[in-house]
């Protein structure tokens, strides 16, 4: 039987659970956080081991006491020196003395903080030289044990992590920064060895079973900088996130010093125990699989953009439900009429904690919005407001698509902070929705799109339309109509990123380069290798348009790129993929 002092700590909890899962009798204690009803409350500073054994263990004596309880915050230790010394030194010595008198073996978890951090990858033979109070406290206990005990185990640990989502480790720190859209700031060159906490538990168990004694570095070979670890985590878990930086020591507001080049050489113990440690890729693979599974609801999956997003999600193996007003020949879509049906009935189908609703539903045809304004307004504004409010109340993270038609088209280069001033009824509806959501539903993510183009030939794709126009004669483009065309795949990736990063507010989802319709049409025909096509520009009043059209509605995408690190497809690449898909 083993006794873990501080089973509520990160490593202590892993030790406790590992022993329980492997049928090893173990008793756990806590001081502040009773996460497990089986644990016993024990104060490291004032508690008595003999009393604990008498009261709770019927006078049975544990084979070993594993001390995991400690104040492990470097800055908290120095800011509360008396209190941290009472726990980390005085209380720990008292428990060591009590265990020694009872003939119980002591296992103590120490740290790489006993070194100065000037070279990294320290061995057991390297001379300790702590630069922090926390490190000095750990070293004092190491020396106390080696000077007062014949049999003991000291495990120095570099950086313990979990391989499951939701644990209180460095991955949790990264994730919380990401979903709060805060910068992940890393001390320049700070490096350590990442070791899976379950591997630590396995090694501790084996060392106890082999009755090892002495000081060992319990550490993997996963030597990595904090900055690189953050970058790998982002790439593996959320895809893109640009707010990661390294800063010099002098630029960071540490209260106590920091050891920079940490890391422990754990070869000695690894060879003795004949064990191996998980590599970082394996740890993050396991972590990724434990992430809460998202369920997606695509409202308007029968439309051009909605059908693409819906199809891509399903192709990627995501749990996805799609709705359409007309479900003919679409057996996998659910009929939903925004004017008649209650979204609450659909919401009941979603039982995951992570629920994402993408609202593509609505009337997007400018001409029909003008001709049937009353019905279009009821769909695009009145019912959509009700729909999104209900989704938010039911725990959905909501993504709403808006349009570049919220602008008057007089300037171009619009940012998210540019003043909107729609000149057609469709744009005015989207403008009203943007204003409503920003004020009343601040957690909703609004993705403002320009003209969306696809790499697959279809009747709704402007490339396909231009091909047909070229066969029939001249290609007609409105003079001065300038847009920031965006690839359909970019829209899909923006939805994924928004859901992963929990973006909220307004983002322009557009390509890097704006083109007039005539310019992009010319580029398209050049790459297509068609015989010279006459592209004719005309004024808007020469075309029988039912409602106004804004001209220069090009938009800036820097906000989205800066916050996510995402790179949009170029129109050259989109056109080339379109041509390849035709073959």
Structure description:
With 583 residues, this protein is α/β, with parallel strands linked by helices. It folds into 2 domains: 2-290, Rossmann fold; 294-582, NAD(P)-binding Rossmann-like Domain (Rossmann fold), CATH 3.40.50.720. It is built from 20 helices and 25 strands. Helix 1 packs across helix 7 and helix 11 (304-315) crosses helix 17 (488-501). The chain is elongated and about 100 Å long. The model has no long low-confidence stretch (mean pLDDT 93).
Question: Could you outline the blueprint of secondary structure elements for this entry?
Answer:
Elements: E1 2-5, H1 10-21, E2 26-30, E3 40-41, H2 49-56, E4 64-67, H3 74-79, H4 81-101, E5 105-111, H5 133-148, E6 152-157, E7 159-161, H6 170-179, E8 184-187, E9 191-196, H7 197-209, E10 214-217, E11 223-225, H8 226-237, E12 244-247, H9 267-273, H10 280-290, E13 294-299, H11 304-315, E14 319-324, E15 334-335, H12 343-347, E16 354-359, H13 366-371, H14 373-393, E17 397-403, H15 425-440, E18 445-449, E19 452-453, H16 462-472, E20 475-478, E21 482-483, E22 486-487, H17 488-501, E23 505-509, E24 515-516, H18 517-528, E25 535-538, H19 558-564, H20 571-582
Parallel strand pairs: 1-2, 1-4, 2-3, 4-5, 5-6, 6-10, 7-9, 8-12, 13-14, 13-16, 14-15, 16-17, 17-18, 18-23, 19-22, 20-25
Antiparallel strand pairs: 9-11, 21-24
Helix pairs in contact: 1-7, 4-5, 11-17, 14-15, 18-20
């Amino acid at each position: 039987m083993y006794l873990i002092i501080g089973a509520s700590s990160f490593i202590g909890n892993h030790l406790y659970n590992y022993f329980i899962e492997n049928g090893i009798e173990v008793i756990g204690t806590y001081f502040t956080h009773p996460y497990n009803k089986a644990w016993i409350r024990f104060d490291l500073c004032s508690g008595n081991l003999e009393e604990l054994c008498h009261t709770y263990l019927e006078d049975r004596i544990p084979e070993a006491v594993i001390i995991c309880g400690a104040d492990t915050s470097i800055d908290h230790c120095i800011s509360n020196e008396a209190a941290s010394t009472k726990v980390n030194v005085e209380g720990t010595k008292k428990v060591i003395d009590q265990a020694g008198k009872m003939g119980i073996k002591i296992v103590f978890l120490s740290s790489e903080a006993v070194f100065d951090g000037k070279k990294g990858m320290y061995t057991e033979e390297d001379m300790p030289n702590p630069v922090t109070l926390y490190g000095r406290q750990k070293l004092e206990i190491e020396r106390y044990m080696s000077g007062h005990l014949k049999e003991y185990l000291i495990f120095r640990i570099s950086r313990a992590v979990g391989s499951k989502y939701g644990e209180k480790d460095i991955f949790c720190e990264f994730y919380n920064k990401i979903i709060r859209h805060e910068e992940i700031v890393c001390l320049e060159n700070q490096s350590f060895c990442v070791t899976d906490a379950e591997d630590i538990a396995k090694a501790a168990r084996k060392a106890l079973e082999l009755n090892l004694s002495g000081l060992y570095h319990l550490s993997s070979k996963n030597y990595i900088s904090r900055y690189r670890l953050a970058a790998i985590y982002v790439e593996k878990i959320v895809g893109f996130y640009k707010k990661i930086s390294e800063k010099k020591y002098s630029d960071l507001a540490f209260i106590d010093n920091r050891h920079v080049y940490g890391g422990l050489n754990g070869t000695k113990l690894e060879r003795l125990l004949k064990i191996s440690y998980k590599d970082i890729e394996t740890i993050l693979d396991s972590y990724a699989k434990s992430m809460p599974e998202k369920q997606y609801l695509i409202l308007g999956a029968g439309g051009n953009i909605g059908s693409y997003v819906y199809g891509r999600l399903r192709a990627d193996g995501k749990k996805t439900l799609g709705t359409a007003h007309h479900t003919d020949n679409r057996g996998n879509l659910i009929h939903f009429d925004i004017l008649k049906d209650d979204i609450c009935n659909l919401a009941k189908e979603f039982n995951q904690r992570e629920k994402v609703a993408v609202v593509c539903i609505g009337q997007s045809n400018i001409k029909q919005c003008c001709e049937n304004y009353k019905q279009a307004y009821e769909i695009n504004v009145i019912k959509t407001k009700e729909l999104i409010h209900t989704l938010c109340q039911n725990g959905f993270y909501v993504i709403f698509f808006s349009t570049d038609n919220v602008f008057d088209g007089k300037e171009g280069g619009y940012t998210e902070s540019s003043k909107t001033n729609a000149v057609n009824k469709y744009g005015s509806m989207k403008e009203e929705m943007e204003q409503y959501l920003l004020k009343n539903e601040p957690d909703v993510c609004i993705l403002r799109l320009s003209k969306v183009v696809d790499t697959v030939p279809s009747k709704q794709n402007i490339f396909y339309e231009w091909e047909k126009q070229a066969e029939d004669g001249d290609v007609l483009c409105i003079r001065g109509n300038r847009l920031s065309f965006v690839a359909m795949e970019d829209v899909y990736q923006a939805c994924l990123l928004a859901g992963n990063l929990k973006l909220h507010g307004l983002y322009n989802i557009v390509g890097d380069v704006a083109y007039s319709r005539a310019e992009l049409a010319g580029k398209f025909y050049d790459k297509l290798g068609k015989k010279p096509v006459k592209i004719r520009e005309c004024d808007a009043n020469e075309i029988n348009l039912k409602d106004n059209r804004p001209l220069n509605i090009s938009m800036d995408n820097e906000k989205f790129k800066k916050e996510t690190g995402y790179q949009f497809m170029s129109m050259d690449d989109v056109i080339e993929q379109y041509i390849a898909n035709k073959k």
